[in-house]
UniProtKB/TrEMBL annotation:
InterPro entries: Acyl_CoA_acyltransferase, FemAB-like. This is GNAT family N-acetyltransferase. SUPFAM superfamilies: Acyl-CoA N-acyltransferases (Nat) (SSF55729). It comes from Shewanella saliphila. It comes from the Bacteria.
């Protein structure tokens, strides 16, 4: 992360005397790539009015649309203290926007409790939608399938049958046990797929993947996929916590019908069931996940816009958008493939 990449670190530290009471990741952004809470239309509106939207400030985990804490609080802080610190952070952010001439601040994918802290400061709130799989105490993948309607169950079985015919072998490897050759294989798959899709080799470098292997390998699962000749044909990168599985990146060197769904969804579901994980978050967007058992869930972001007129316009937009998101989630919930509510 650097000025060159458009993610310049500008992290916020809150102290009380000599004690650090809170930390918040903060970046000076010169574009909106890698955020997954889309504000391109806001930037275009600024440009049409001959105003600069960039640089702006963003609090998020770069290239990671995962809900979580965006402020690290001292554990001893009470809820009242946390609200006070959050309000002070907003005061400082507003001062920085005015003094540094940054257009705005955006706190992305905060969890619900933290989102409440942000909302209580009176700033703009925005809702979105993702799709997460829930483990309803399934014994195995077949048990998961039996919870579905017959038609949906048959569709998934048909998709998986395509892969079975290809005689591919799927192996999960712990990140700290993965060899250099396995990591290089994953990177090759990742870069090849980005090259075909976007004309470049991806935003994340081989050095980045090497670094996370060294620093958080115990939280990583590499899915290595080989053909009958033991040749690597695809790979996927997952992260795991005590309760959640997160599917993030994948790539393929060869094309197989249904391989994306198998590598990025069904293998993840099987892993979550086998390891008694509660939730599988397979990434941003994708309402096609609903037919495969993923529930629609609300996501939250917070925003401060320095320009008064744009602040009012964006707040009105977000309020109208919330109503649409709520309706969308209700509609997607009705399309879930389960026999009964899970």
């Amino acid at each position: 992360m650097s000025h060159k990449t458009g993610w310049q670190p500008h992290h916020l530290v809150v102290t009380q005397g000599d004690t650090i009471v809170a930390l918040m990741p903060l970046y000076i952004k010169t574009h909106s790539w890698g955020e997954y809470v889309f504000d391109w239309a806001w930037a275009e509106a600024y440009e049409r009015n001959q105003l600069d939207y960039y640089p702006k400030l963003v609090s998020s985990i770069p290239f990671t649309p995962t809900t979580g804490a965006r402020i690290g609080f001292l554990p001893s802080l009470s809820d009242i203290d946390k609200q006070h610190v959050t309000s002070e952070i907003i005061t400082v952010i507003k001062q920085q926007l005015s003094e540094r001439q940054w257009s705005s601040w955006h706190g992305l994918f905060s969890h619900k409790a933290e989102h409440t802290l942000w909302a209580n400061t009176g700033i703009i709130v925005r809702h979105g939608c993702q799709f997460h799989w829930r483990n309803n105490h399934y014994v195995d993948f077949n048990d998961f399938l039996t919870s579905m309607s017959s038609r949906k169950r048959k569709n998934i079985t048909k998709e998986r049958a395509q892969i079975q015919k290809a005689q591919l072998r799927f192996t999960f490897v712990n990140g700290d046990d993965a060899t250099d050759e396995q990591w290089q294989g994953f990177v090759r798959c990742y870069q090849q797929t980005y090259l075909k899709r976007s004309g470049h080799q991806g935003y994340l470098s081989a050095a980045f993947f090497k670094l996370i292997a060294q620093t958080m390998g115990e939280s990583i699962r590499l899915l290595m996929i080989h053909n009958a000749q033991d040749e690597l044909v695809a790979s996927a990168l997952y992260f795991v916590s005590n309760t959640h599985l997160y599917g993030r990146y994948w790539g393929a060197l060869s094309d197989y019908d249904g391989l994306h769904f198998e590598a990025c969804y069904y293998q993840g579901i099987e892993y979550a069931i086998a390891n008694q994980l509660h939730v599988f978050d397979a990434g941003a967007q994708g309402e096609h996940k609903v037919a495969r058992g993923f529930y629609p869930v609300a996501t939250y972001s917070s925003h401060v816009i320095d320009h008064p007129a744009f602040s009012d316009a964006i707040e009105n937009f977000c309020q109208q958008e919330q109503a649409h998101i709520k309706l969308y989630i209700e509609q997607m919930t009705q399309l879930l493939p389960y026999k009964t509510s899970n």
